[in-house]
């Protein structure tokens, strides 16, 4: 069993306590009420026509960032969090290219920049505590718990208020699913929510080609050896034939 | 300078080129100092929504442009096509310089350049980028051994040179396998960005498309370098070599175009293209002057067998590769995210400096090492 967060747009009052608690828990210098993520704001509340939705790392079950990182600086832990190790990171920013949610933020103004994003309060979780954002939410719009249970709860809420919600638990299957689950309104889905439309985990797209590498390498190598032998033989035969023809000619 | 016709005009133009090079290095080195003392944010227009820019574009293009090295080594040593023998060392030199510059350029682009060696010890075997890095790294070692032949010959270590010559077939084989793998793996790198790239460029065939586009681009760049070398060393294209290389270039361009069209048909991209004028514009900029026009030129025997026609086709193929990699690394992403990007003067000047550095290394190496066959040296 792994942990998850359920965010429910219908219950969100837009107070921004989650964002503030996150900054406090991670000692971030980010400003109050940010409108977008940055290196010092790991979660924001986005507003569209009176509707609200949180934007933060979804902690994918099969994260694109972790599979793309050449040095394994990003990792999915069994408990749920996708964590970052700055000591391994080389700063190639492939994770920025890979992330379907456009989550990672960089310390562009630093000469030793790190990749910054929500860490699912991994340290608090180790103490058996809930995430800072879930603790701080006064409206129970952000709930921390077992992902499986939250998923059931999310579906129950969709069934209870079908006219309010977009009929989908985002994060259940999109891009292979994520630890973070979001239920929200059709307006948000239309205007503010970024989600992969495919259900295939994104790392599988890479794997389809990547797993062929040994076979391609071996196949190309074998083929070239064959060509080397054949073309060598062809030249030898041609040279021999020329020699024979010359001898024949000389003989006459 | 007995072998140079030292007319006054030549002296003036030499001085002008020298001054331009000095200026490029002065600005480039100043930009380098700014880049490493102030960070990426202060010196580039890269951002969270545009994480890869000019430098990555040039790096990926350069890898493609260096494909001539493995193609010629394979054609001469594995396919036994002796008529290309006179340029195989020049091709290997081109690749060796190209990949060295890839390393230089990556140091600029990495956020933590001091960690550049981490892929040696920290492995994420699922990462297409790790595989690419390893294939390129080992291929540079292969190129180093191939370059050691003219080097040891030039220095006069005949015994070592002869030993190394016994390895050429093995090195050509390793080079061809490693190049096939990393040229295509660069396409694999983009597979994970399925919905962040314009569907005009995204395809599960990207590994094949990257490999297939690198072949004419790499050959074209080699031809450009050879025409440049004619000015500095006593070596001239023979009409037979022009003929043979032009056919090879035509063949690789045609193969690439067929693969591209097959992919468009397979994924139904033609209708997509008709409804997306912006993407159509950029794709047109890439394929019409960079693929279709050189095919048309090379298909005409009179053009194909003329020096100037052949040279123009080669330049077009190189520009085509540049545009192709631009679309894959930058344009395809911007069209999807609607973000904006134009490089800073620091990004541009550093790119120019690295480019100039490559040309200088190539010319110096071609002049002091036995890169071109000796018998031709006495002809001119």
Oligomer: heterodimer
Overall geometric form of chain A: elongated
Instruction: Count the E strands of chain B.
Output: 0
Percentage beta strand of chain A: 5-15%
How can the largest sheet of chain B be summarized? none
> What is the CATH architecture annotation of chain B?
Up-down Bundle
Mean pLDDT of chain A: 95
Tell me what portion of residues of chain B adopts beta-strand conformation. Answer: under 5%
Chain-averaged pLDDT of chain B: 94
Largest interface: A-B, 57 and 61 residues
Helix proportion of residues of chain A, in percent?
Answer: 25-40%
Q: What's the CATH first level of chain B? A: Mainly Alpha
Task: Note the topology.
The complex is a heterodimer of chains A (252) and B (380).
Chain A lengths: L2 E6 L8 H9 L18 E5 L2 E5 L8 H5 L5 E3 L5 E3 L9 H5 L6 E2 L8 E2 L5 H5 L5 H5 L5 E5 H14 L19 E4 L2 H6 L10 H9 L2 H39 L1
Parallel strand pairs in A: 1-9
Antiparallel strand pairs in A: 1-8, 2-3, 4-5, 6-7
Chain B lengths: L7 H31 L1 H4 L10 H12 L2 H11 L9 H22 L18 H28 L2 H8 L2 H22 L16 H27 L6 H28 L2 H6 L2 H23 L1 H4 L2 H31 L7 H24 L5 H4 L3
Detailed description of the structure:
The complex is a heterodimer of chains A (about 250) and B (about 375). The radius of gyration of chain A is 28 Å and the shape is elongated. Helix content of chain A is about 40%, strand content about 15%. Chain A is an alpha+beta fold. Chain A has helices at about 15-25, 65-70, 95-100, 120-125, 130-135, 145-160, 185-190, 200-210, 215-250; strands at about 5-10, 45-50, 50-55, 75, 80-85, 105, 115, 140-145, 180-185. The mean pLDDT of chain A is about 95. Chain A contains 9 helices and 9 strands. Chain A folds into 2 domains: about 5-200, Alpha-Beta Plaits, CATH 3.30.70.20; about 210-250. Chain A has a 3-stranded mixed sheet with strand order 8-1-9. A two-stranded antiparallel sheet of chain A has the order 2-3. Chain B is an all-alpha fold and about 375 residues long. Chain B has one domain (about 20-35, about 45-375): Formate dehydrogenase/DMSO reductase fold (Up-down Bundle), CATH 1.20.1630. Helices cover about 75% and strands about 0% of the residues of chain B. Chain B contains 16 helices and no strands. In chain B, helix 3 packs across helix 9, helix 3 runs antiparallel to helix 14 (about 305-335) and helix 5 packs across helix 6. The longest helix of chain B has about 30 residues, at about 10-40. Chain B is globular. The chains are: A alpha+beta (about 250), B mainly alpha (about 375). The interface between A and B is large, with 57 and 61 residues.
């Amino acid at each position: 069993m792994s942990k998850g967060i359920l965010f429910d747009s219908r219950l969100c009052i837009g107070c921004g306590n989650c964002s503030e608690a996150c900054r406090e828990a991670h000692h971030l210098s980010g400003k109050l009420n940010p409108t977008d993520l940055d290196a010092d704001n790991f979660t924001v509340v986005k507003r569209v026509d009176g509707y609200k939705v949180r934007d933060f790392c979804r902690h994918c079950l099969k994260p694109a960032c972790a599979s793309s990182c050449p040095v394994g600086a990003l990792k999915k832990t069994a408990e749920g969090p996708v964590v970052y190790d700055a000591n391994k990171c080389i700063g190639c920013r492939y994770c920025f290219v890979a992330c379907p949610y456009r989550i990672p933020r960089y310390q562009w103004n630093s000469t030793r920049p790190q990749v910054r994003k929500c860490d699912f309060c991994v340290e608090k979780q180790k103490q058996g505590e809930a995430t800072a954002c879930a603790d701080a939410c006064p409206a129970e719009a952000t709930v921390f718990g077992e992902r499986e249970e939250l998923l059931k709860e999310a579906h129950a809420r969709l069934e209870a208020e079908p006219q309010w919600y977009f009929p989908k638990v985002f994060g259940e299957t999109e891009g292979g699913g994520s630890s973070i689950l979001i239920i929200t309104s059709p307006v948000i889905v239309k205007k503010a929510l970024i989600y992969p439309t495919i259900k295939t985990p994104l790392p599988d797209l890479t794997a389809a080609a990547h797993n062929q590498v040994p076979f391609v390498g071996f196949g190309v190598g074998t083929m070239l050896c064959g060509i080397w032998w054949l073309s060598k033989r062809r030249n030898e035969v041609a040279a021999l034939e020329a020699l024979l023809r010359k001898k024949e000619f000389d003989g006459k | 300078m007995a072998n140079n016709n030292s007319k006054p005009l030549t002296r003036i133009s030499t001085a002008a080129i020298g001054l331009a090079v000095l200026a490029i290095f002065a600005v480039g080195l100043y930009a380098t100092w700014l880049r490493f003392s102030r960070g990426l944010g202060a010196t580039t227009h890269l951002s969270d929504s545009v994480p890869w820019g000019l430098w990555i574009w040039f790096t990926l293009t350069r890898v493609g442009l260096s494909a001539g090295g493995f193609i010629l080594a394979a054609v001469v040593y594995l396919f036994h096509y002796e008529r290309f023998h006179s340029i195989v060392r020049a091709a290997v030199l081109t690749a060796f310089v190209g990949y060295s510059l890839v390393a230089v350029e990556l140091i600029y682009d990495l956020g933590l350049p001091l960690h550049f060696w981490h892929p040696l010890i920290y492995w994420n075997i699922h990462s297409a980028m790790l595989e690419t890095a390893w294939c390129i790294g080992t291929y540079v070692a292969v190129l180093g051994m191939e370059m050691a032949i003219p080097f040891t010959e030039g220095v006069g270590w005949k015994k070592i040179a002869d030993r190394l010559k016994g390895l050429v077939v093995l090195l050509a084989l390793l080079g061809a396998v490693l190049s096939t793998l990393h040229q295509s793996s660069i396409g694999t790198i983009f597979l994970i960005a399925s919905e962040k790239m314009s569907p005009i460029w995204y395809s599960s065939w990207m590994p094949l498309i990257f490999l297939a586009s690198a072949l004419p681009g790499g050959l074209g760049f080699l031809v450009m370098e050879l025409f440049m070398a004619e000015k500095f060393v006593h070596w001239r294209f023979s009409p037979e070599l022009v003929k043979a290389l032009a056919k090879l270039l035509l063949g690789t361009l045609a193969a690439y175009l067929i693969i591209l069209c097959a992919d468009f048909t397979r994924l139904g991209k033609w209708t997509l293209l008709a409804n997306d004028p912006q993407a159509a514009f950029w794709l047109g900029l890439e394929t019409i002057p960079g693929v279709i026009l050189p095919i048309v030129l090379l298909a005409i025997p009179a053009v194909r067998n003329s020096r100037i026609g052949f040279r123009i086709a080669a330049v077009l193929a190189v520009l085509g590769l540049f545009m192709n990699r631009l679309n894959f690394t930058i344009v395809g992403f911007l069209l999807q995210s609607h973000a904006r990007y134009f490089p800073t003067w620091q990004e541009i000047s550093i790119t120019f400096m690295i480019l100039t550095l490559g040309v200088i290394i190539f010319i110096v190496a071609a002049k002091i090492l036995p890169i071109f066959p000796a018998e031709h040296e006495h002809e001119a």
